TrEMBL record:
GO CC field: membrane
Protein name: MFS general substrate transporter
Localization in the cell: Membrane
Pfam families registered for this protein in UniProt: MFS_1 (PF07690)
Family, similarity comment: Belongs to the major facilitator superfamily. Monocarboxylate porter (TC 2.A.1.13) family.
Organism: Armillaria solidipes
Transmembrane segments: 95-112, 119-140, 146-168, 180-201, 213-233, 257-279, 291-310, 322-340, 346-369
Keywords attached to this entry: Membrane, Transmembrane, Transmembrane helix
Membrane topology: Multi-pass membrane protein
Amino acid sequence: MSVLPEIPSDIIEKIPASGTLTKSSENIASRPIEESIHELNSALHDCPDGGLQAWLTVAGSICNNFTTFGYVNSWGVFQSYYQTNILKDLPPSDIAWIGSIQYSLVFLPGLLTGRLFDLGYFHPLFAACSLLLVVATLLVAECHEYWQLLLCQGFAVGLACGGIMNPTTAVLSHWFKKRLKFALGLMAVGSSLGGTVIPIATRNLLPLIGFKWTMRIIALILLLGLGLSNLLIKRRFPPTDIHGGLFNFHEFKSTSFSLYCASTLTSFLGIYTILTYIDVSATKVGVPEDFSFYLVSIANCSLGFGRYFAGLLGDRIGAMNVMIPFTAATAIVTYSWPFARDQSSLITIAVIYGFTSGSFISLLCAPIIEFGDTADVGR
């Protein structure tokens, strides 16, 4: 027998007290039971689209993305450093596996964490993965071998970021409906801030205090950001044990949903190529090393503007209508990148790439939420 979920307090306040039956409540009582249940379900899924706690949750999600996606998007600086220092005897393609695993694991844990979110394990999962991310970053400071960096910075950091980021996206759908794309755009700005600050901090700290203390300072930054996000982010709806198993395969009967999944899969195969290699490629064409790392920060800064703009535009004309042309533009920029042979042209590539690719990440989850019911967001 299924158990009815607890009604949120803001809905309870609208229910008249015993003995004060109003005309409207009499009308509800006189309706068929199916109609009353439908109205109650509509009330349960009515999003406030604002309010103090809603915007605090957005603020927490910005801190969250700063420390997860912002950290992962800084990989280009680490790729360049490892190629010339710790892992200089290895080919760049081997070193790139660390960053590739990071990127893949940011999304892969969503297969499990979504279900755990539905069952009410959001805050324990969030806290545990936050701790794992900080500890893994501290362990990176002690790494000297390729396999150690692969485990700590590839697998551990990637899994921790995935366990943190995926449930947070679902929480925003509790608080926003009409303005969800704008809220998602604001959340995505956090990754751009992190991707701008962390590479600059890393590159400037490395010659001053060395690799170990640089990673320890980054771990401290992550601890502060994750601490704030753990305090600010709150879910609105109570846990629900959704029937149907870990995955909702029923949605794949929809041609639109299946095509969307296939298109995002192929987009991910190339969306981060520029961000990963633009630092290294710049030095190969003669750009000074003391400037080349800024290209990663420039791209991430432009990402922030692109994500914010995409969130605003997505609420007006629809997420897919924004994602399709902007993602196509990102592909054109990626194919144009090899022809950029000097500093000014690489800056142009970084700016355009950041702005156009920002819409893809910013609005990635919006169509998925629209394809299914709110109850299926986790799955």
